[in-house]
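Thread title: Can someone regenerate the structure for this chain?

I was given the following input by a collaborator and told the matching structure tokens would be attached. They weren't. Posting the sequence so someone can regenerate them.
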Amino acid sequence: MKKPRLSFWQIWNMSFGFLGIQFGFALQNANVSRIFETLGARIESIPVLWIAAPVTGLIVQPIIGHMSDKTWGRLGRRRPYFLTGAILASAALLIIPNSPILWFAAGMLWIMDTSINISMEPFRAFVGDMLPSEQRTIGFSMQSFFIGTGAVVASSLPYVLTKWFGVPNTAPDGAIPDSVKLSFYIGGVVFLLAVLWTVFSSKEYPPEELIKYSEAKVNNADGSANGGVQKGIPGSKFLRSGLMWILAGIVLFLVFALLIGLDYGLSVFFGGIIAFGVLQIVAGIFSNRNRTSGGLVVVMNDLFGMPKTMVQLAYVQFFSWFALFAMWIYTTPAVTKFVYGATDTASALYNEGANWVGVLMAVYNGFAAIMAFLLVWIARKTSRKSVHAISLMCGAAGLLSFYVIKDPKLLIVSELGIGLAWASILAMPYAILTGSLPAEKMGVYMGIFNFFIVIPQITAAAILGFFLKHFFGDQAIYALLLGGASLVVAALLVLRVDDVDELEA
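Best answer:
Regenerated them for you:
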């Protein structure tokens, strides 16, 4: 059976909650580095403080995806997770700008990001659940529209509150300005209300009906014809792979510790490699004992049995999100120091530059919201792969231009290229991916796909501080240049991806 098409307003309602989710993310991306610096963080330590957020997503999203695949209650399958995450994230948004010390702020970032992930992951699966294949591009583009719209308002809030309403934008040394605090308070309210709109205005197909609508394609990595549902991976394979990962992590740790030098970020990174190996060892032991129904073994089996399209997109996502995370971490220090020439975080010039970063982020998100639906039209006329590759190249040009543009106002032009890439990143990979996934595993595979958003963020957080300190003299602008180069690689890799829906068409 084919899923019925939904109306424009039904797709609008089911996507509206992303307005609130992005409100939280945009406030985090535009202001958390500023909060960390204000509370005394050194430039090379900022990526380490951010690392908790992607680590949380790596753990939380596949768990939530697996749980939501198995859930059915009064609010349905995905909506209970929308609501739970929204309540927790809204509370965290109210607390984080009142952090008294640096490590309290880092801990609250961890809690806030966990809560946002609880809400966000099921939203991606929700589109796959509810829309037929020909409407998925518009479904994910609608999410892009709300992401862009929410981010425009949230990113520019400190600037608007200061310029239009006279809210103080400076504070004593070590204190968070009122403009930032009030922005987070507004964000907490918007987050909750937007998600409530989706929860109470949308319905879900019950599990038995959803199975009838399954549209999984022949696209397994091994060429099998069951849309990603594969036989269990032998325990011996988990054990061998796990030992290799553990050995690699230990060797890298020792090489850096003894020959090059090791900081906290790299320690976490190498520890993550070892931890992934340990998880495979545990999954292998459980598999050998025929204990294969637990969440860990299920997720590991699905990870090692990803559809071919998902494997191809994983590389694209890695380089795309490495660039984005470099941008989010380092745009504030890059602009305030390289463009404005400000180094004192308590100075009016620094806070003016930091507010302008919020405006720049609002620009790229606003342009992404505008371009979201235009990209759908262009993709219909050409292909989703072509649209995504060109968009990523425009984003690369935008990031690289930060090195040559000295007028802050001209950076708005750079943000247009970044906005085009952002609109495409939020829609095209998911639209391409969904056609290759089985309906009964939509949630867990969307959670696993998040690995390839989170792993590059962890990598960026772990290595960028090291590279800036040892090779680039703590000049944050070079992190943006690395991000631009990474987007070029992602654009080239898109051309290798098999888009199942377009191949069938």
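Residues 348-381 form the longest helix (34 residues).
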